[in-house]
């Protein structure tokens, strides 16, 4: 009782203190910069120099807290991972690239790479496509917002919830028993034998992907819907006056107009896919050839406790993201050029 | 919005905190029944200087299952010493234990069922060695004490063998569960030999019945129930020495002796007529749901091979001994190998030394710590001083006697193997085996994964 | 928080008027649109509906029949063991053992009963069967049985009676009751709020300042930092657990604390893990704000600090709200970070952890699974629906240039 109140008070105090600290830091540091590097009392070259100095320091003041957090919580672990990936199981002896060599020769690793490629193709494409279709359809109907909310709902469901939900879909009971899984009930309804869906290699990966598509479509839909609303009405009107069909308008006008957003959505979902772990862990744990990199890494890290190999796999995951990073650097630089 | 939620949370806190007060009541009043109260008194007298200390324990028993049992045991420790115990567990307790050990935030005492994992932790220097006096007590005070000493002895960081782990709570794996009524109604008799068990299986199929319920599903650990089958069969058709060599990989996983054991398991499980739901259901049926087939009308199966903990998952009103019973997974008559018994159990290690931690390890060797749990549910004790009259029912007593009468006792092999095998490729291999791969292919694959970690 | 929530800012970028022009084209195409969307929505909702229906069903029916059959009465075969000689009472010169084959269950109707596994529905309700232990047994349609004999019963093992029962469809809140009354659930609710609310609020300002710098200020390495932020989005979280926990424990030792598992620690961890997404989203949004306003403000001599606090922050409210939703959902639904940085001791368990531990050793209890899963979903859904209107508009104005 007492400690519950204390805990709640603690949380409230923490919110107040954290907000106050943020305000104090941003306001205070900014004030000090203007105060101590003021150009009021100097003139000419000195004034310009001070102006420049202030301008070059200020962005870093804005960025400092974020960079500190990112360095400690994410950058440092990345370097730690790189270091561990060339050490042995216990992290004490240098083994060079042996962990990477092992990974390349390991059956399950190869299987994971293949599966990950499948995931990377299927999930972002399907989620984006469904999201786009639903966004376009929903924007045209009076009950569109209700529809969108329902489609978005899976985003709010914890993985504990999602895995239970899908067990009711994929559940398998022996032939002749009453099926309580929806999919098998449909199949047996057509007089076909029930299938143990998550045990049939290749197809089972697809069934797991459907779960992620189910979750991510809501995300794609919300963002694409916002983008669609940004298309100038005149453009659409003009096309309509020219007699273009809805389908033509969709492909020739809407998609080119929002292609930028589509790419962002696709990228974000790709990143989610590379990190996908919960679904595999809870549904199959990589059995029946469903292994993916993130789960494979987790196994070597926290089941086999071979930090070297676990880290090597993690590095591979990070390498897989390199193209996305490079693409983003390019995009960021291009933007910088135009401004 | 957020402030509102906070207010709501606070309200809930106020109204429910009152119901949340945990009474640290003692389950059995001191001085009554067949319990060894004098041992508890002596223990209390020996540890009078611990009052006010806190002891953290991390273990495998979770809520809704055995956590309440363990907590009822802890209450006696708290009562005797004045120490406050904080117990924790989670779904992935083994991983959590390792993460905490690596990061330096271990509990004082960690209890795990895998000697293989403990050996790994010892080699990384996460465990505190126990005294020679304690080691001598473990050997002297337990049935099969020498084997428990070797189970708890691992190499430390420098490669020196030290004694680390005290056994607490055993499970018996060589059991087959059945419904005595169903056996009587159908005219089946409990088989006395492994060969009779196979004949019975064939007879049931011939009668149009389904003999076995086998479920390997266990979330992330899917496959493990099959490892118990294979280990039990290993002990029926190969010598204990072969078994020991096998868990150390001196006997290769693709050795004909091991392949033969796999194929024996395949004889039971890889036949649509032998298992409820057909072979396809074996891999996906949850091990916790699997035994329910024994109790359905008409029965979906007549036998279920599983360890002594499984009655927790029987339907709620099942009376052990009446509605369900077990027989010993029988020894072979062809191979003269005595009465081998496969078991498992949890071992306690000190992961962060403190006087209270040492006292707790001592407490685990005190008969009271065993008896309090024995008197409630599935706890088998190997402690000689623990009074068998405190067992909650005849079933437990019967299991206890199997444990004591075994001519050969062997610990669950998959728990002794390195994690990558025993909690990795062995499981996956069994799932693949049931899924259709040949024993040879599976043996080769597991052996290859073992070679890869050497 | 409250400063940015002034109603005035909600009216920025007014939503486009409803596209009446689409409406005019009412024809076969519109019908198809309705049907298609309905179909997609049904597909997306069906699995969750299944869970909801299941969670409201009787726990005995839950695992034996599909949720879509919930409205139909189901038939099931059952078995019960009736009393031994110890339960008999003498009445009018007879000896009677009585009770109900359904126990306390009242929504079952007897379809028939029998004495062996293979003949469970042999005798109709009200019928009589001779018993091997002597006397006769009759079972009424409501399950009440009477086993009557002229001689005293002596058996010690109650015989089994098999029956065919019709179970009326029944919906109940029992499953929820069971989960909500289990020890410590409410504490876990509070813990989840304690973790989630600060972890949602703290990153907002930090991310907003950084995003502004990356969107509107010129300085060296800007492109690199943007790329870094995107790159960090994909760092597998699992990698950072051990290094960070080690760091925490060393800090804890420095301050003499028991270990590094504190609420402060988990707030900061969630803050950091949420930052890449926050910066990425907010920067995208801020880049899209009209350049002209910024430039004219700059020409008027306003400092970056003023522009940020006076204009950008209020204008970014929809984006901030969107991020808050994401962060709230993520932190609320998180299990891994909470387990590692807060621990699984009873008094620190968050709701997801609590439910997993409820399931953990009782994996076959579907009633706990279903009701529990729904309980975890409720809070995020409330948050989502409450903030949804900012969400749809606010998320990505940035890339819609």
Task: Describe the model.
The complex is a heterotrimer of chains A (339), B (454) and C (401). Chain A contains 14 helices and no strands. Chain A has helices at 2-36, 44-84, 98-105, 107-139, 144-152, 159-170, 182-189, 203-229, 233-241, 246-257, 259-274, 278-283, 293-302, 307-338. Chain B is of the alpha/beta class. Chain B contains 19 helices and eleven strands. In chain B, the strands form three sheets. In chain B, strands 1, 2, 3, 6, 10 and 11 form a six-stranded mixed sheet that branches. Chain B has a three-stranded antiparallel sheet with strand order 8-7-9. A two-stranded antiparallel ribbon of chain B has the order 4-5. In chain B, strand 4 (153-155) and strand 5 (161-163) form a beta hairpin. In chain B, helix 3 packs antiparallel against helix 15 (367-374) and helix 18 runs antiparallel to helix 19 (439-451). By secondary structure, chain C is of the alpha+beta class. Chain C is built from 15 helices and eight strands. In chain C, the strands form two sheets. Chain C has a five-stranded antiparallel sheet with strand order 2-3-7-6-5, with no helix packed on it. In chain C, strands 1-8-4 form a three-stranded antiparallel sheet, with no helix packed on it. In chain C, strand 6 and strand 7 (144-149) form a beta hairpin. The two termini of chain C are 28 Å apart. The relative contact order of chain C is 0.11. Residues 1-18 and 395-401 of chain C have low confidence and may be disordered. Classes of the chains: A mainly alpha (339), B alpha/beta (454), C alpha+beta (401). Chains A and C meet through helix 1, helix 2, helix 4, helix 5 and helix 6 of A and helix 3, helix 6, helix 7, helix 8 and helix 9 of C.
